[in-house]
Design brief:
alpha/beta; five-stranded parallel β-sheet; five-stranded mixed β-sheet; single chain; Uropor_MeTrfase_CS; 4pyrrol_Mease; EC 2.1.1.133; Cbl_synth_CobM/CibF; transferase; globular
Length: 249
Amino acid sequence: MTVYFIGAGPGAADLITVRGARVLAASPVCLYAGSLVPRELLAECPPDARLVDTALLDIDQITAELVRAHGEGQDVARLHSGDPSVFSAVNEQMRRLDEAGVPYEVVPGVPAFAAAAAALKRELTVPTVGQTVILTRIAQRATAMPEGEDLATLGRSGALIVLHLAARYVDRVVDELLPHYGAECPTAVVAMASRPDEIILRGTLDSIAEQVKSAGVIRTAVIMVGRTLGAEQFRDSHLYSPARDRHTC
């Protein structure tokens, strides 16, 4: 049988994909991160499904649950918040399933940065202003960043930076980006994107830290820093331009 790694989306239960919901509804076993995945999603599971909250399980215990279900001939829905492609710890699970000979598939989901952009009503790429988005995090005690991927280095590009898992360290973020982006660079923080308790903070690189601390935001947030967040005067894209010849490739 198959393990399905499903992106549950950023928070709102109805932001799971149609494919993800269909697989969830057909899987007799569901493993989910109870601290991050909305409980409403579990209503999509079969009434008699075995539900396993992985919030307090380590990687070996999680793998054992997946292998056990496979051995019993049961498909497994492994729900991850956001999208499995970034900051999801899916790689280490897939590696262990490869070793155990257990087949799996990945069902993409709506990532947190996309939900944050929607909340801000912003396109993150703007013609002639910015066409590059950097998704990253900062070094913490648990996991160091690879050489050359620190904020001071990435900030030299001037591209829009999207930071996950960094709200608790907002002062560090500001200090490391100020030399490259300047105090007046548009900055936003979206916490609990797409959820009823969503928090949206808008400001500049110089003002955002105080807003974050005043709002009590320390987790489940995305920090965005870049010129495209404040772009108002820019050239229309070529895609829908009246001057474009639509009869050629």
